[in-house]
Amino acid sequence: MKRLISSFILLISLGSFAQDPYRVTIDLTRAQNDQVPVEVIVPSIDKDEVEYHMAKIVPGTYSISDFGRFVVGLRAFDKDDNKLDVKKVSTNRWMISDATKLHKITYWMHDSFDEFDGYGSNKVFEPGGMGIDANRNVHVMNTFGFVGYVDGMKFNPYELSVKHDESIYGATSLKKIKSDKTTDTFSAENFNFLADAPIMYCEPDTVTKTIAGAKILVSVYSPNNKLSAADVMDNIDELMEAQSEYLGGKLPVDRYAYLIYLFDGPTISNAWGALEHSYSSLYTLPEMDPLRIGQTVKDVAAHEFFHIVTPLNIHSEEIHDFNYIEPKMSQHLWLYEGVTEYSSHHVQVKYGLYGLDDFLTEMKGKMNAQDQYNVDIPYTEFSANILEPANEARYGDVYSGGALIAMCLDLTIIKSTNGEKDLQAVLREMAKKYGPFKAFKDDELFGEIEKLTNAEVGEFLRKHVGGIEPLPYQEALGWAGISYSPENSKMVATTGRFGFGVNDDDEIFIRDASNLNDFGRAMGYQEGDVFLKWNGEDVTLQSINSILDKHYGETKQNGKVKVVVRREVNGEMKELKLKAKAVHVKSSEKHMLEPMETLSADQTRIREVWLGNS
After folding, report:
1. Helix, strand or coil for residue 230?
2. Mean pLDDT throughout 498-521?
3. What is the mean pLDDT of the chain?
4. Of 353, 344, 360, which Cα lies nearest the Cα of 307?
5. What is the pLDDT of residue 119?
6. CATH code of the domain occupying 495-582
């Protein structure tokens, strides 16, 4: 399964709070054929012609969404319900004549979770889309997908009314100004604030709790009731406490909402993950085993929440005044996504939510992941041109290479300042200087960081982020007493060279047996075999990794390997015992990370600053 971890969306207010608002109504009770009606009563207009815009792209998704293609039957009316002339200019723009008379705009909106005639090949990543499911009475509403704005009037306030059945509840971070059993009305200072707050309507399963001074809301839709909001809150409670310490002792927001939509079938984008907002994050994840989904939510939540630092409080001009129709991208995805991804793992090891070995395994995985990508252009150039097809294919590298940049930068800051500062300390200083309403210039970021640190840090950024020099893993990790080897070869017991799979019952099975080696053939493996026991141990999702580690490292050449599988034989399911003598093969392992047993005083000091007591 393809996994797209996350993106963020940051939307900053630049204008004053205008007094003439948009009044928008979305009627979920009239949903049909994956569509809902939208009515937009517009502010007063003093121009003869205006354009109504739907977003072409939203920040954080790094791909063209073209939400205008989901609009059906857009019409414009004056106060007496007389139609005004409307001409579609492009996918996301409509020209309206006699605009001084314009009172309201109406249309139907397709959802993006399901295909329809005219959808096209460009599939919208679900956390950045719209899901209208009248049959299950669950609706995922990214407001930027339903509502647009009149060109030049993006900073007028919005009142959004949502009509819904009594049986469902709308969870969101939007300000609710009034509500009854079937209608909620929300307010937003302008389009940016409206677009920054998704809403999820479903049968209520919500939990609220005050953590580190912030009111935390969790809302879950689980079609088969495999996960509850209480389960999620139990998983993220200690995480958010650790994050508050990591960020200087308190959470930087007064409220935050986790909106979690689980799916029990394939998605149109063939991806899963989350999209971050200033006061909330929206997740679309597979409905799997509760233990797995709990840790997955925790890992993704750790990443998403840290977007409050970058880009909410630290961002460039390109993000500060985002152009929804013709966007200009920032050079610093490594900061917005890479630093955030690194922090999501670093906080967990620094505050004891998992061990050093787990952290090093995560970093090793990112090194292996980065090997997939062509990194022959600087990260700054790649980021600024992310919408070009050649660079879009490298987007996943922001979560691997970007996180590794952050790790090496963190160590460089600690070493070069003699432990007086680390990356988080520098980010806190930058957040105080800039904050939500002030942007840095893209070309000046490296110099700004150098002013807060030293020339060694500035040189690191110019060589490894603004240039293409490989990251200094061996040197940087060595400062903290971690040995790094690019590759290591050893003899291990083979499993048979088959492809693993996980079925709907979360059982491990042989998905592909086309490349079995001699040992696999001696065992008699067949596609579809479900593993029940391996050398006497029960095979589960929770145990499989430790079972395989033992097999690789402890099974001697010609030692006995005994496996119990479930297989269909002549139309009946039977348990079969398979066995063969172990065969050792040469295995090459890349990017070996190991804590050194003996540390110098400098290494001890740097590791303590970097990882706390881990």
Report:
1. helix
2. 90
3. 90
4. 344
5. 92
6. 2.30.42.10
CB 251 within 8 A of CB 211: yes
Report strand pairing: 6-8 vs 273-276. parallel
Asked whether this chain's domains 6-304 and 495-582 adopt the same fold, the reply is no
Amino acid at 453: T
pLDDT of res. 106: 98
Place of tokens 């970097």: 610
* Integer Cα distance of 52 and 88 in angstroms: 10
Query: Which amino acid would we find at residue 478?
Result: G
Model confidence at 1: pLDDT above 50: no
The larger pLDDT score, comparing residue 354 to residue 449, is at: 449
What pLDDT band is residue 5 in, cutting at 50, 70 and 90? very low
Q: Report whether 593 contacts 484 (CB < 8 A).
A: yes
Query: What's the sign of the alpha-carbon dihedral 371, 374, 377, 383?
Result: negative
Place of tokens 């939307």: 11
Q: What are phi and psi of 557, to 5 degrees?
A: -55, 130
Sheet containing 86-90, strands listed edge to edge, beginning at the edge strand earlier in sequence: 86-90, 93-96, 50-53, 149-150
| Strand ranges (E), 452-505 | 482-493, 499-502
What's the first-to-final CA gap in the chain, in angstroms?
Answer: 33
Give dist(CA 383, CA 331) in Å, integer: 5
Mean pLDDT, residues 579-597 taken together = 90
Work out the burial of residue 66: count CB atoms within 10 Å of its CB; fewer than 13 is exposed, 13-18 middle, 19 or more buried.
middle
Which residue bears the tokens 């432990």?
Answer: 419
Give the whole-angstrom CA distance, residue 191 versus residue 336.
22
Output 6 or 106, whichever has higher pLDDT.
Answer: 106
Let me know how many helices (H) and strands (E) the chain has, helices first: 18, 30
Q: Where are the domains of the chain?
A: 6-304, 338-484+596-611, 495-582
Residue 10 reports pLDDT greater than 60: no
- Give the pLDDT band of residue 290 (cuts 50, 70, 90): low
Q: In this predicted structure, what is the pLDDT of residue 465?
A: 96
Residues forming a β-bridge with 162: 26, 184
Instruction: Give burial (CB, 10 Å; 0-12/13-18/19+) of 63.
Output: middle
% of the chain residues with pLDDT over 90: 65
Q: At 525, list the tokens.
A: 């493996």
Report the C-alpha dihedral over residues 79, 83, 89, 93, rounded to 10 degrees: 40
> Token pair of 352, please?
């004891």
How many other C-beta atoms lie within 10 A of the C-beta of residue 612? 14
Q: What are 227's strand-pairing partners?
A: none
Given a contact cutoff of 8 angstroms between Cβ atoms, the answer to whether 488 and 476 are in contact is: no
Per CATH, domain 6-304 is 2.60.120.260: no
255 pLDDT higher than 50? yes
| Residue 407 CB coordination number (10 Å) | 24
Residue 573 burial (CB count, 10 A): 9
- Which position has the token pair 């252009």? 377
Residue with tokens 């961002």: 315
Q: CB of 147 within 8 A of CB of 24?
A: yes
- Per DSSP, the three-state class of 591 is strand
